[in-house]
Amino acid sequence: MKILSATFLLHLAMISALSATVSRPNLVLQRAAFQQRNSDGAFASATPEKSTATVARVETKSATTNANDQAQKFYRQGLALIEAGKLDEALVAFKESLRLRPDDVQTNLSFGITKAKTKSYKEAFEAFKRAARLKPDSAEAHFRLGMTSQVLGKRNQANDEYKVLVQLKSPLADRLNDALKNSNLLSVAVGITADLSAVVDKPVANVAVSAPVTPKNETAATDNNAAANEKPLTEIYKVGVGDILDIRFLNATANRSTLFTVMPGGYIDLPVAGGATLVEGLTLDDIQLRISTELKRRAVQNNGPVSVGVRQYVSHSVMVTGLVSNPGVRFLRRESVPLYVVLAEAQLRNDAGRVSILRGATHRVLELKDPASLNVVVQSGDVITLTARPQDFYYLGGRINYPGQKPFESGVTLLQAILAAGGTRGNETNVEVSREGTTGRLVTTKFNLKAIKSGTVEDPKLRAGDRIEVIR
Questions:
Q1: φ, ψ (nearest 5 deg) of residue 465
Q2: Which one of 98, 320, 337, 455 has the fewest beta carbons within 10 angstroms of its own beta carbon?
Q3: 359, 387, 415: which is the final residue of a domain?
Q4: What was the pLDDT predicted at 174?
């Protein structure tokens, strides 16, 4: 039994040794094959660990490139949305761009400018602050940061930004200094979003902006707005400085009107919509939409329908002088109104016969007896002067009983004029009528009185200034 066990153990040991001998060449062959595969590829390495690291670096570089391209795409979309007036959507695009590329200076600036447009000055401040930190020599970033600091009451921060601009020798330092001296924060707020392309030291290169894809329902809304903008000026009114607006929130508990005066800079102070709201140059429908959108964005309670009207018209005015019973300033309720509307309010006098309209360097004279003159439109800034219509004359001479200067009345004919002057002295039938031509020179035409009387020739109507001579 012991002999068998020893024999069995000896055989087992020999088998194990043989297996070990066979496995070593296989391991060597496997390693050689692995290295050969790596040497055939583009990223060969001495060991599998080094090859994996190289591939990881390449994949990271590719991912970074894709992220930059995607960030640039979102940035361009944001710019296009700003041009379309879709500020909320532009902010979403800029946020996506910053998520992929948070250290991009221009995207931070654009995000801050858009936030300032929506009156979110604290977030705008942080965006400008990041841009200034990322690029310390950016005059634009320091200027906008200083302006926003002034609006937020951070006086020391605004002064620090002014000092930086002075050190950078930027012309924007003077503009910021003027803002620091300005107590009207509304006008300063406007400066935050100002176009600095012609002032900033190092303008940002222009970026080609592709138009965003607009859903069908948004396209229809855009078309409706375009159609509204194409209305005649006699049907619309764009709010201006000094106008008093009547704004009502129809779902409010107390449906009372609140009056808001449009202040210098074109703003009204509407706290429920975030404070200063730009309304100058907008129609009432535009203002109503802007307020409703802002209330919805802020999730203000009871942000139902908003009604906007004008309680007092102040910004559009004309001056009326001359032969009217009530001269003075007249306020327009449309961008343009027909002349007869203004004259009816000013009460035209009976002796008025001519109106002159002074518009800038243009001076236009109209005859009130011409019905078309009353339909001429006037606009804000016009000076309207009513005068008596000067007497016009025509002149008779030659072989006629009562020659001389005769008062001209519209519609008088040649035969009527000769009869009114006592007729001819004898049997003269030939008449020459001379009048000023288009070149300023006289043009003479001959007529035969017998032919006129017989009806074979039309009796011509005279014009003011005609020279009539009866000849043999």
A1: 90, 0
A2: 455
A3: 387
A4: 85
Instruction: Give residue 96's pLDDT band: very low, low, confident or very high (50, 70, 90).
Output: very high
Instruction: Count the domains in the chain.
Output: 4
460 within 8 A of 432, measured Cβ to Cβ = no
Please state, in angstroms and as integers, the Cα–Cα distance from residue 347 to each residue in 124, 322, 375, 379, 385, following that order: 54, 11, 16, 19, 13
- Which two structure tokens, joined as six digits, stand for 201? 């030291």
**What stretches of 84-215 show up as alpha helix (H) in DSSP?**
87-100, 105-117, 121-134, 139-151, 155-167, 172-181, 185-192
CA 261 – CA 411 distance, rounded (Å): 54
Give the per-residue pLDDT at 81: 84
Q: Are residues 333 and 453 in the same domain?
A: no
DSSP assignment of 435-464: EE-TTSSEEEEEEEHHHHHHTSS--PBP-T
- Tell me which long-range contacts 178-184 makes (C-beta under 8 A, separation of at least 24): 179/146, 179/147, 179/150, 180/146, 180/150, 180/155, 184/264, 184/265
Indicate the helix (H) or strand (E) that contains 348: none
Q: Are residues 188 and 64 in the same domain?
A: yes
For residues 181 and 63, membership in a common domain is answered with yes
pLDDT at 92 over 50: yes
Is the whole-model pTM more than 0.85? no
Are 106 and 180 contained in the same domain? yes
- Please identify, among 168, 192, 216, the residue that sits at the C-terminal boundary of a domain: 192
Residues 70 and 156 in one domain: yes
Q: Could you tell me if 90 and 134 lie in one domain?
A: yes
Asked whether residue 41 is domain-assigned, the answer is no
Q: Which amino acid is it at 346?
A: A
Report the CATH number at residue 457: 3.10.560.10
Residue 180 · residue 158 · CB < 8 Å: yes
- Name the more confident of 250 and 160: 160
What would the pLDDT profile of 19-53 be if each residue is shown by its tens digit?
444 444 444 434 444 444 444 443 333 444 444 45
Cβ atoms of residues 251 and 302 within 8 Å: yes
pLDDT at 205: 37
